[in-house]
């Protein structure tokens, strides 16, 4: 079975956004305060606590613009946080009953037929199944409700 790892946003990119660098739409990240729960940080892959500062920004988790390079809103801690470095399912993937998993090729394009709503308890097995295929370079995990990018899954 293919061993997988959950990959968050790169730390240098998170630092740049915290310093006010423009997001994927050329805008400065918006700084706000949380009220309650439901703010998953894409750098530490944990939820941002209640009453804590966070950033909202447009994120494009692809190396270059191209037709399949989806862009969307994400949250992240406004203050420095440790980058997630685990191989188990990260905390932000435990708040929903299901997620969309989708495979991408080495050209950063969607591999058709790989996208599927996947139950939370099947995320690791589905990702390993996809990454066992030589035509799939990585997998994206997205919200099954809003299609928001959560994290990337790679071969370990």
Automatic annotation (TrEMBL):
InterPro entries: DUF1203. It comes from Rhizobium daejeonense. It comes from the Bacteria. The lineage of its organism: Bacteria, Pseudomonadati, Pseudomonadota, Alphaproteobacteria, Hyphomicrobiales. This is DUF1203 domain-containing protein.
């Amino acid at each position: 079975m293919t061993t997988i790892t959950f990959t968050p946003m790169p730390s240098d990119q998170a630092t740049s956004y915290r310093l006010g660098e423009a997001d994927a739409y050329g805008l400065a990240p918006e700084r706000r305060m949380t009220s309650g729960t439901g703010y998953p940080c894409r750098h530490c892959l944990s939820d941002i606590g209640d009453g804590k500062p966070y950033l909202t920004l447009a994120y494009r988790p692809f190396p270059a613009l191209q037709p399949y390079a989806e862009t969307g809103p994400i949250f992240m801690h406004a203050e420095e946080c440790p980058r997630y470095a685990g191989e188990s399912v990260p905390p932000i993937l435990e708040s929903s009953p299901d997620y969309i998993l989708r495979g991408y090729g080495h050209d950063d394009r969607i591999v058709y037929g790989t996208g599927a709503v996947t139950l939370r308890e099947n995320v690791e097995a589905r990702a390993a199944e996809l990454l066992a295929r030589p035509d799939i370079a990585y997998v994206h995990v997205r919200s099954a409700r809003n299609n928001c990018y959560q994290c990337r899954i790679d071969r370990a």
